[in-house]
Amino acid sequence: MLNNKFFKASSNSESGEVSEDTVFHYRQDGTIIWGTYRGGEVKFGTLSGYIKDGKHLVFHYQHLNQTGTFKGGVCNSEVSTNPAGKIVLHEKWEWTLGGEGTGQSVLVEFDNTK
């Protein structure tokens, strides 16, 4: 479902650092997920977790931003599909390191081969 898929944010809460310039590359092995992300305010980030009930992602994330601050948190995402057949991740996240607060974001799959 998620292996070797690429995503970009279509929306994010103001307290988040991910933007439409941030590219996520997801990997999957069974129910285990992991990925990397970079772009915009994020210099480099990683995430790892698992798929619960076949349609929910539970993971921790961490990244170094462009100002040199290391940040991290937890995220729960619901997986759906848009009318174009692309995977959409509806995320609810919370900073646990280097930031404060909670937020919501939406990531949409895109074709990275173009």
Descriptive overview:
The chain is mainly β. It has a single domain (5-110), classed as Lipocalin (Beta Barrel). It is built from no helices and eight strands. It has strands spanning 5-12, 23-29, 32-39, 42-52, 56-65, 70-81, 87-97, 102-110. An eight-stranded antiparallel beta barrel has the order 1-2-3-4-5-6-7-8. Strand 4 (42-52) and strand 5 (56-65) form a beta hairpin. It is globular. The two termini are 20 Å apart.
Topology:
Elements: E1 5-12, E2 23-29, E3 32-39, E4 42-52, E5 56-65, E6 70-81, E7 87-97, E8 102-110
Antiparallel strand pairs: 1-2, 1-8, 2-3, 3-4, 4-5, 5-6, 6-7, 7-8
Task: Please name the CATH topology.
Answer: Lipocalin
Taking the alpha carbons of the first and last residues, their distance comes to 20 Å
Please tell me the overall pLDDT: 96
| SSE pattern, N- to C-terminal | EEEEEEEE
Tell me the name of the CATH homologous superfamily.
Avidin-like
Question: Which range best describes the helical content: under 10%, 10-25%, 25-40%, 40-55%, 55-70% or over 70%?
Answer: under 10%
How many helical elements? 0
How many individual domains?
Answer: 1
- Spatial order of strands in the largest sheet: 1-2-3-4-5-6-7-8
Which of globular, elongated, flat, extended, rod-shaped describes the shape? globular
Structural class: mainly beta
The CATH C-level name is Mainly Beta
Give the strand tally: 8
- Indicate the CATH architecture: Beta Barrel
Strand content: over 45%
Runs in which pLDDT lies below 50 for 5 or more consecutive residues are none
Radius of gyration: 13 Å
Largest sheet: 8 strands, antiparallel, barrel
